[in-house]
Amino acid sequence: MSMLFTLLILGGDTLTLTNGEIFVGKVVAQNEQRLWLKLEKGGVLTFPRDRIAKLDAADTASPAPAAVRTPAPESRKGSSPAAAPAKMPGGKAAPTIAVVTQKDMGRYALKCPAGFEKDPAAPPPFVCVLNEPATGARMTLWAESFDKGIEDAAEKVRAEIGAGLVAEQEFRLRDAEISGRLFESEVVSERETRGELQVVFVRDGVLFKLGGGVRKDRIEQYRDLFHEVFAGFKLAPAPPDRSAGALPAAGKKTRAPKGAPRAAVAPGPPPPKEQPR
Q1: Which pTM was predicted?
Q2: Residues near 159 by beta carbon (within 8 Å), at least 6 away in sequence
Q3: The dihedral of CA 259, 265, 266, 271: what is its sign?
Q4: Which of 106, 171, 231, 260 is the most buried (most CB within 10 A)?
Q5: Which CATH number among 3.40.630.40, 3.40.47.40, 3.40.50.720, 3.40.1000.10 corresponds to the domain 64-236?
Q6: CA-CA distances (angstroms) from residue 32 to 4, 20, 67, 197, 230?
Q7: Are 226 and 79 within 8 A, CB to CB?
Q8: Could you give the 3-state DSSP secondary structure of residue 154?
Q9: Which of 207, 157, 209 is nearest to 185 (CA)?
């Protein structure tokens, strides 16, 4: 058994059901079994595929990346992506991931998005956490410098998860131009079994990770929160590097400060001697 899941961000879509009912909104997610439609007046509805007669998209979405198939336990049903509203609970503004250029121990510092707090007890790069009382979830956002691509990042995460990996899926947020991987895993201990989710993507030499987990019986509720938080992320451009030694922008000339000695000009080669005739 394998899972195949694709997340798309569409807009202004019309959904016609087999009984003739029509719904207008925005398709925020879909997989082989279900489709999630965010209504124009608010709220998200879920429709099984066998109830959908036709879907008319207002615009053509960019093709989704090929999904990655991974084996899943036979007794476990396929995961469903949660609907992704534009704002976090309580009407908070969409969080922003902001990369700064100052490095700390070789890792990039990270400004915490709205809703997240700095965790003084955690060493870098574990810098931002979100504690959610309803599910008891602790969601962590961190970043580190990374000079490779998403495939290498995914391989790194697979090695970290090990045998607990349940599913790996392509994950895309078109509005934020983020394309990465979503990993789902299980951690079994003597006390309980925990379900964990982790999104990984690479941008401008930085590896971003958003992850956390809860007791397995609360994983679906946590999945809703996880998608809701991640769907609001928007990448902010990194500020220009003004550190010493940075190269000047192309097309701009730099001047030496007043009073500074002018650089000596290296003497050219001596003129050739005339040969006697």
Answers
A1: 0.50
A2: none
A3: negative
A4: 231
A5: 3.40.1000.10
A6: 7, 22, 12, 20, 22
A7: no
A8: helix
A9: 157
pLDDT in tens, the chain (277 residues): 333 333 333 347 888 888 888 888 888 777 777 777 777 666 667 788 888 998 887 654 333 333 333 333 333 333 333 333 334 444 455 455 544 434 433 344 556 777 777 776 666 665 778 877 666 777 888 777 788 888 998 998 999 888 889 999 888 776 567 778 989 999 888 888 889 999 898 877 778 888 888 888 888 888 877 877 777 676 665 555 544 444 344 344 445 555 555 544 445 556 556 656 5
In contact, 9 and 30? CB cutoff 8 Å: no
Q: Which three-class secondary structure state does DSSP give residue 151? A: helix
Q: Which residues contact 157 (CB under 8 A, 6 or more apart)?
A: 181, 183, 198, 200, 209
Taking alpha carbons only, the member of 145, 66, 60 closest to residue 108 is 145
CB atoms within 10 A of CB 211: 19
C-alpha to C-alpha distance for 117 and 76, rounded to whole angstroms = 34
Structure tokens at 166: 């349940």
Number of H helices, E strands in the chain: 2, 16
Domain ranges of the chain: 64-236
